[in-house]
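Q: Convert this sequence to structure tokens.
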Amino acid sequence: MTKITYKVASEHPFPADAAAAAASLAAYEALDDVTKARVDQMVDWIMKNCLWQFHSRAWDRKRQNEGILGIAAKLLAGEPFTPETPEDRCYWVDSVTLQRAYQATCPWLATMSKDDIKALMQELHARVDYLTVTGSLNEELTDLHY
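A:
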């Protein structure tokens, strides 16, 4: 029989990110209940429907999260975005998919101001970074030989 063990934050495999992970988790836990529920709903959709969260290196995940969620924030706030590079185009396609899904599944977005949407998307970005990078126990993320 195999014994399964779990690491706790104090035994985080990436000591350089342990403080960032703890700060991100504390910030999330300090959110009001409505914001936390909204962020959780949005994270849930990403985790169930998006493959871009699974890049094999931390820097790739951070860059991808920033690109896609940054563009999605603009689109959800009704701001124009014109992709200028191949990387922008790649992020834009995923962002449009995310925008459409959120508009269909999160009707409360229509009641929010542009500034509130941007603030919510910043919280979402922080949570996704925590779940996929700083709080992840996947040691492959920092393996130099991978």
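The CA atoms of residues 58 and 141 lie 5 Å apart.
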